[in-house]
Design brief:
15 helices; alpha/beta; binds zinc ion; 320 residues; 8% strand; five-stranded parallel β-sheet; Rossmann fold; elongated; Zinc Finger, Delta Prime, domain 3
């Protein structure tokens, strides 16, 4: 990720990009902001900047150093997380202090990313202060905390503080669309809204759950070959619960029918459920079903009445 891809907080980002262009980044930066405001993303960009080997604008995002930084495997970038036991206690801070004087392995600079700095006890903060007072050359410290005030004034006065605010719901939606180009736009917008624009929380919403949707999709699939329509109707009716539920069920059903079709063509890397279900219908029927589900999934993108839709879905899935 490069700075221009950072969403929201335009003023801070503009200031940082100007500082980067002029190569005037200070040796210690403190980023404050609530969860989901982008502290870690910004910290990662700053670290990338410090190790990037490009001649022009840094970070370039494409040089080997940037790629290593992005993957979290650059040897000159050290991360310590105060929320994890022992990572920012006094001993840990002392070892960060001595590591700061070691020459960089690969690039021009060494970077120390220190997250959850509010967890640092005053003694650890004082130990850290020593290295801030006489910073070694070619070192960048990036500290993150919910609030800068949780750190000692002596530390705050020796760092440049950038305050981040969570992106708006619309900005969050833009980010999510970039991150999940394959996911339904309605689902993404729901996740952005339900998380109040907090991207971390929105990703959690998109990734967690879904068990019920998966089960419903499987139940619908199982009911397709049954002789009576009633069983299928009972299952498709379940999607009338709400729109985002219906969209996810159809998405799962689409994936499942694609997998079953693959299984019927002899593919090996399919789930046991798909393998089992693929045997309940003929290959020709599976092919037809795949297109029927695809069509049904697309129809749901229009603002259709869910009750009518569930009945229609049942009839479409039973069509041979
Ligand atoms: Zn680079």
């Amino acid at each position: 990720m490069v700075l221009s891809e950072f969403v929201g907080n335009e003023e801070v980002i503009y200031e940082i990009s100007e500082t980067m262009k002029n190569r005037l980044l200070p040796h210690a930066i403190l980023i404050e902001g609530v969860k989901g405001s982008g502290k870690r993303s910004l910290a990662r960009i700053l670290a990338q900047y410090a190790v990037c080997s490009a001649e022009g604008d840094r970070p370039c995002g494409v040089c080997p150093a940037c790629i290593k930084a992005e993957k979290g495997i650059h040897p000159d970038i050290v991360t310590a997380d105060g929320s994890k036991a022992g990572e920012l206690n006094i001993e840990a801070v002392r070892s960060i202090r001595s590591a700061a004087y070691i020459k960089p392995n690969e690039g021009e600079n060494r970077v120390f990313l220190m997250h959850f700095c509010e967890k640092m006890l005053p003694a650890a903060q004082n130990a850290f202060l020593k290295v801030l007072e006489e910073p070694p050359q070619n070192v960048l410290f990036v500290l993150t905390a919910v609030s800068a005030t949780s750190l000692l004034q002596t530390i705050r006065s020796r760092t440049r503080i950038y305050s981040l605010y969570p992106p708006s719901v619309t900005e969050a939606e833009t980010v999510l669309k970039k991150m999940f180009p394959d996911k339904d736009a309605f689902l993404l917008s729901e996740a952005a809204q339900n998380s109040g624009g907090n991207i971390g929380a929105a990703i959690e919403l998109l990734n967690t759950g879904g068990e019920e949707e998966k089960k419903t999709a499987e139940a619908i699939f199982r009911a397709i070959p049954l002789s009576t329509e009633y069983a299928l109707l009972t299952e498709t009716f379940k999607i009338t619960k709400d729109r985002s539920f219906a969209i996810t069920v159809l998405e799962r059903l689409y994936e499942l029918s694609a997998e079953c079709l693959k299984a019927s063509c002899g593919a090996k890397n399919v789930s046991p459920v798909a393998l089992e279900l693929s045997k309940t219908l003929s290959k020709k029927r599976l092919q037809a079903l795949f297109f029927q589900v695809q069509k049904a999934r697309d129809v749901l993108k229009y603002n259709v009445n869910l009750n009518f839709y569930s009945t229609w879905l049942c009839s479409v899935l039973r069509r041979y």
